[in-house]
Write a structure and sequence with these properties.
Elements lengths: L6 E3 L5 H12 L4 E5 L5 H10 L8 E5 L8 H5 L4 E4 L13 H20 L4 E5 L15 E2 L14 H20 L2 E7 L1 E3 L11 H9 L4 E2 L3 E2 L1 E3 H13 L7 E4 L6 E2 H12 L9 E2 L2 H7 L4 H6 L8 E2 L2 H7 L6 H14 L5
Parallel strand pairs: 1-2, 1-4, 2-3, 4-5, 5-7, 6-15, 7-12, 8-11, 9-14
Antiparallel strand pairs: 10-13
Helix pairs in contact: 1-7, 4-5, 6-12, 8-12
């Protein structure tokens, strides 16, 4: 299968964007990807090739950074659809929230302005579950596509606020300009690694396997396979009805408690997962540490809470049919073990 529809993927060196590139290449789409510097092109190509990029892939790179206007006009020229995946920072505590929020919001608007300037009408934005399912009162466990995380709710960190503000800015921009926007809000994304760089949700799995996470908290993580996230984006581009809609991407099941993830790793991988934690911090200790330790402050509101992210809209509109999240967890672990990253 080949297609003349050229796709721009921002943040082309990232884990999620890399899997997007693979899926679009397998389907014959010409792809242009942004990276911060063309000096990284051969490294990124090598990583993608090792992960299965077809030799026949029509893939080009352009240098563009979310913090600078340079390169974005060139990046958008001649493409048909933009997949804005790039994110300036991953979850974690930061001293100055503006260092996270400003580049996320302004970077998103920079990409959208370049798209409009190039005459494009369609952008698919990769947002996150952080923009939907965090900061809510404990009694709320069911989450749907049109919900928004309250900016100052319990457990909201700079990353979560950046996702809310960047996505809201994108929707405001679309309303003002007539841009056909689709936003995708995946829960924690896991799956086979590319190269040796581990980021985001995948760090948790590696921490369990290596013993760097010796104990766990009484929290549950909603999880989705990276391949399913990529497939949903492919579907969004090919589905006119997806324009103007927001999609929560999950496997449709309850979030997985960390204790179950750890037990799954030990059961599936035996000696290779012998360091996976068996001890849990008591809730009272997490709450006490939350007064002085920012990461504990962010998870304390979710102690004992099992979130239920819906995927009904994605199933109905996109034909979304994800794998069970536990398979994404084991695939993520297997790729780290096979790569020798756990030794």
């Amino acid at each position: 299968m080949t297609t003349s529809q050229t796709i721009l993927v921002t943040g082309g060196s990232g884990f999620i964007a890399g899997h997007f590139i693979l899926q679009f290449a397998e389907r014959g789409f010409p792809i242009r990807a942004t990276i911060c510097s063309l000096a990284k092109e051969q490294q990124v190509r090598g990583t993608l090739s090792a992960a299965g990029l077809p030799d026949t892939a029509d893939l080009t790179f352009v240098a563009a950074d979310l913090t600078d206007d340079a390169g974005w006009a060139e990046a958008c020229a001649g493409v048909d659809t933009v997949l804005h995946v790039a994110s300036p920072v991953m979850p974690g505590h930061v001293k100055n929230e503006d260092d996270v929020i400003t580049p996320a919001r302004e970077g998103t608007l920079r990409v959208l302005r370049a798209a409009i300037g190039a005459g494009l009408r369609r952008v698919v934005l990769t947002s996150a579950f952080h923009a939907i399912g965090f900061g809510h009162p404990r009694g709320i466990t069911r989450f749907t596509d049109d919900m928004w995380s309250p900016l100052n709710g319990p457990g909201m960190d700079a990353y979560g606020r950046s996702k809310v503000l960047a996505e809201r800015a994108a929707w405001d921009f679309a309303a003002e300009t007539g841009l056909e926007l689709t936003s995708m809000c995946p829960v924690a994304v896991m799956g086979p690694i590319m190269g040796r760089s581990i980021t985001g949700s995948n760090q948790m799995i590696l921490g369990m396997l290596t013993g760097k996470m010796p104990v766990i908290a009484n929290v549950a993580v909603p999880t989705i396979d990276v391949g399913d996230v990529a497939a949903a984006h492919v579907a969004a581009i090919n589905t006119p009805e997806a324009a103007g809609k927001r999609f929560l991407l999950s496997d449709g099941q309850d979030a997985i408690p960390l204790r179950e993830i750890s037990a799954l790793l030990r059961s599936r991988f035996g000696d290779a997962a012998a360091k996976a934690p068996t001890r849990a911090l008591p809730d009272w200790l997490v709450k006490a540490l939350a007064r002085v330790v920012p990461p504990m402050r962010e998870i304390a509101p979710d102690l004992g809470r099992v979130k239920q992210p819906s995927n009904e809209r994605a199933r109905e509109v996109l034909g979304f049919d994800p794998r069970p999240a536990r398979e994404a967890v084991t695939d993520a672990a297997a790729s780290r073990i096979d790569a020798g990253l756990t030794r």
